[in-house]
Amino acid sequence: MIVESQQDMAGLVRVGKVVGTALKRMKEAVRPGMTTGELDAIGAEFLRREGARPAPIVMYQFPGSTCISIDDEAAHGIPGRRVIKVGDLLNIDVSAELDGYFADTGATMPILPVSALKQKLADTAYQAMQKGIQAARAGQPVNTIGRAMEQVVRGAGFRVIRDLPGHGVGRKLHEPPNVPGFFNPRLRDKLVEGMVITIEPFVSTKANRIYTAPDKWTLKTPDGSPAAQYEHTVIITRGEPILLTKVD
User: Fold this and answer.
1) Contact between 122 and 108 (Cβ < 8 Å)
2) What tens digit of pLDDT does each residue of 143-156 get?
3) What is the model's pTM?
4) How far does the chain reach from its first CA to its final CA, in angstroms?
5) What domains can you pick out in the chain, each with its CATH number?
């Protein structure tokens, strides 16, 4: 969406703060030995108290309030009985609707100690997101974001998962435009002042594609290689983007 009023701005700020805080609370609660279902319940309860509705359920009838993915699960992992263990690369993706506005955020947590490769992968995904944010300016091609993120990923010797782009967000969870994590020469969209998008590189050690697991939701790397992702919902300006889902 494009922010067109103070009402839009206020609504987006509210939902961004709620979603960002839900992610923070979940990260603080993670302990080896707990299940992904228990972790999801923490996020669900916080959203409920804030009057927000989990976007995966609202939009897609997803079987969980948040998406929790581990290692080769690049996205949309279903919370359940799986136990979180030391050495896991845990991804938490939180999105919600509040008063008609949506926001979306995510982060990868290495459950320490982890291998040096997994730690580097998580660090690279975070650095790629930061570079993508720095590149996002009104008037620039959307491709500017993907180019900046891909340079970080390739420089680390890793690969961008090309099937999982960022996206517009605001009145729905997924809106135009697509915001790939790589440079796509066919993409001609430009960033517009007030545009609300997610910036979210998906990075793997080897894979650049994903497949859908038999549960019909979880997206996994075909070769079992681990994946990492970080995400913020931002508003495009002529200067630095406004990070709606960043919380202290």
Assistant:
1) yes
2) 999 999 999 999 99
3) 0.97
4) 26
5) 6-243 (3.90.230.10)
